[in-house]
Amino acid sequence: MKIPRVRMPERDAEARARNFEEVNLGLAAPDAVTEATRCIACAKPGCQIDCPVGVKVKEIVALICAGDFLAAAAKMREDNALPAITGRVCPQESQCEGGCVLGKKGLPVAIGNLERFIADFERQSGRLGLPAIAPSTGKSVAIVGSGPAGLSAAMDLIQRGHRVRVFEALHELGGVLVYGIPEFRLPKSIVKEEVDNLRRMGVEFETNVVVGKSVTLDELLRVEAYDAIFVATGAGLPVFLGIPGEHLNGVYSANEFLTRTNLMRAYKADEYDQPIYDCRNRDVIVVGGGNTAMDAVRTARRLGARTATLVYRRSEAEMPARTEEVKHAREEGVQFRMLTDPVELLGDKDGWLTGARCVRMELGEPDASGRRRPMPIRGSEHILPVNVVIIGVGTHANPLIQSSTPDLKTTPHNYIVADSATMRTSKRGVFAGGDIVTGGATVILAMGAGRKAAASIHEYLSSGVWEKVPETGT
Ligand SMILES: Cc1cc2nc3c(=O)[nH]c(=O)nc-3n(C[C@H](O)[C@H](O)[C@H](O)COP(=O)(O)OP(=O)(O)OC[C@H]3O[C@@H](n4cnc5c(N)ncnc54)[C@H](O)[C@@H]3O)c2cc1C
Ligand code: SF4
Question: Closest residue (by CA) to atom 3 of ligand 2?
Fold first, then answer.
């Protein structure tokens, strides 16, 4: 416990605020070993208990201590199929590191940094052993959506000998990992490599297929003769504020803004026509306090915004964004305007945004979320001059499949009802998991759902038995 936590090296804040290169630079091998030696190998490891997919952290850290990085990576892959991704984006502070006993008196073992290290080491060594594939079962599974839930399910199902085809509405594979999370947090090459591994294992991918429009679930089952379907379509439907002026030019949802930057390559402005309102020397505000809002405001800063300001109606203590993101954003020059709520967006005669009328807020009693309720302060109205407003206050279920599949049971908010143990839906042969069932959550939870669904689909394909989903679902 006397050894201080090893710091992750980072790119210089001023330089990185002008480009999209990855901020965190990764640990060198000797530093990873030093960090691993901080672990005191608890009899009841809280790190493992608090990991949503039960990664065997203690054993992995011991293998790093022994310098056997490839064995550590292999052990990690037993429970987590995408460690290079989760090592970069998991909210470790509230999961494994939150459960680490060292955190009670000091800083927890840097489990996320170690996870990233072994995954990168394995990849760079070129000795990534692809798992064995069972002989063909003659069964085929369609997966709808190529986010972490769909990719994890594909990985497990192909290993069990089933034919797997992933249908993706967008032209690139990876879901939020590519269209939402920016390059400076998760380089696209890392996601691409994981997708390529799946291809090598035999998974088929078809992009630009909007299931529910181009083809329905019933057609996949009856006409294309898939034996089972896993719906992993996520929760990408943006929520707006419902205030006057949201139709103005210069107003984006965070999802549209990030998708245009990531998939239409606004982040490579020298090579691609800017598929987005030019932020250079303009004032940008992003409304919200979660990871999505933080990604949007840091992206706006990198696209050259004169001011990039996060506007949030509660205080910083209530912000759901990861602590590291807040720290990085502040270092990069993002401004924080807490306890502020836009009530109207203002425009000129040509329909272009010119300002945001805002009110100051104060915190009252805790609401249903357990956080103190923000309440407007009378007489505090003021106008912020602004050219771009990005709204990142949450998302809802992607709706197309539900609307084209009448016998698929949904919740009042249009999420798909699936049994939390088996991921079975109300429709025979159809399973669902990830954000489309839980609402917006995390990468690791979506991956866990994908793996659970794969095990359940395998059982169904092997036994042919379909049990009715309990009325309540998840
Ligand atoms: C900007 C942003 C930042 C985030 N940052 C983090 C983070 O740092 N850490 C973390 O743990 N979590 C983060 N999250 C949350 C996390 O990314 C999600 O919980 C996770 O990606 C959900 O995985 P999924 O597979 O269920 O869905 P998604 O990743 O949303 O993938 C669903 C896929 O289905 C496709 N699809 C939708 N409808 C159809 C259709 N009808 N036909 C075919 N394909 C369809 C979509 O195009 C998409 O590719 C972030 C989310 C966002 C938006
Ligand atoms: S809780 Fe912390 S110290 Fe204990 S085994 Fe896990 S990583 Fe090591």
Answer: 39
